[in-house]
């Protein structure tokens, strides 16, 4: 199960398919996916009602990111008292993440931020993170493909060298943890209430590292990805995206994890796309005011992103899974944005695709329109059930999407 995020909404007219059901036609934005039509479904009608402005006023880009996988309304604050909700990926990771070496993987092509002031008084933590371990703890994504590779498979030129370095590193970490934990327990007896709470938060982080080490040891030898270590972050955006997608394919192929998020860019990103002839900032032209020229440029950016998604799905479809079939046969990949029309900052009729066959439990190859303003979290309840993390509700859900 993976969630791929694109920022700032889309040109809705050129995104929305023509017709419904299996006989629908792809609009121009999704033409790069034409050869994969039998492997995905376009879903229309979903809403994140907690993305809309309320008493907390402006800040739609921060809310788009904060709500997309949580369905929770973020507390408007620029301080350390951030609050949203657990994200669907982490809900699943807490229930089935023990089955793999890594409970989940968080990726991005942006830098990570957990503090500072961003959109209209919201903390940057909301705008730069998709995954939330709990309501106050976002999980920072990694944007460097080399570091992702080394996290998954260790450092070194060969599989044997990576295994040796991995074992030495784990041993060093354990020694440091033993030392720090003893020190912390002694300090804890000397602290007042507030300081003890801060120390508890610190120790929780240490215990998380400890659990990761124990889990890694339980799985024994590192898998050999049969791939070269990436050099780092490429200069071209497309190359960066595809290299990160390669890391995700390798993670699924080696069963290093079964749960991932990939934020192509944070919402509100003003990246330009000179490589496709769009020199304007994406966020700037998303406020198009129905200007045909700006809408055409937005459509070019939308198509660029769907080209990358098509490349990713093709990689999954060309990779055999150890369980039989292909990785795409046994995956559920959600492609989405927390805004539909960027000009209105609309959070209904969100652009959503669900790719993969879910091990035979999904029905791709169609355009499915759910009732308008259906909580997107209803979709998550249905996907969680297929992941073996069944729940009756999640975020602001009010049911399931039964016919996906």
Question: How does the SSE layout of this entry go?
Answer:
Blueprint: E1 2-5, H1 12-15, E2 40-47, H2 60-68, H3 88-96, E3 105-108, H4 124-127, E4 131-134, E5 137-139, H5 145-153, H6 159-188, H7 193-218, H8 237-253, E6 260-263, H9 282-286, H10 292-317, E7 333-336, E8 352-355, E9 366-375, H11 376-386
Parallel strand pairs: 1-6, 1-7, 2-9, 3-6
Antiparallel strand pairs: 2-8, 4-5, 7-8
Helix pairs in contact: 5-8, 6-7, 8-10
How would you characterize the overall build of this protein?
It is built from eleven helices and nine strands. It is of the alpha/beta class and 404 residues long. The chain has two domains: 2-153 and 228-386, Alkaline Phosphatase, subunit A (3-Layer(aba) Sandwich), CATH 3.40.720; 155-221. Strand 4 (131-134) and strand 5 form a beta hairpin. Helix 5 packs parallel to helix 8 and helix 8 (237-253) runs parallel beside helix 10 (292-317). The longest helix has 30 residues, at 159-188. It is globular, with a radius of gyration of 21 Å.
Question: In brief, what are we looking at here?
Answer:
The chain has 404 residues and is an alpha/beta fold. It is built from eleven helices and nine strands.
Chain oligomer state:
single chain
Low-confidence stretches: none
CATH fold-level assignment of the largest domain: Alkaline Phosphatase, subunit A
Q: What is the H level of CATH, i.e. the homologous superfamily of the largest domain?
A: Alkaline Phosphatase, subunit A
Order of helices and strands: EHEHHEHEEHHHHEHHEEEH
What is the first-to-last residue Cα distance?
15 Å
**Domains (count):** 2
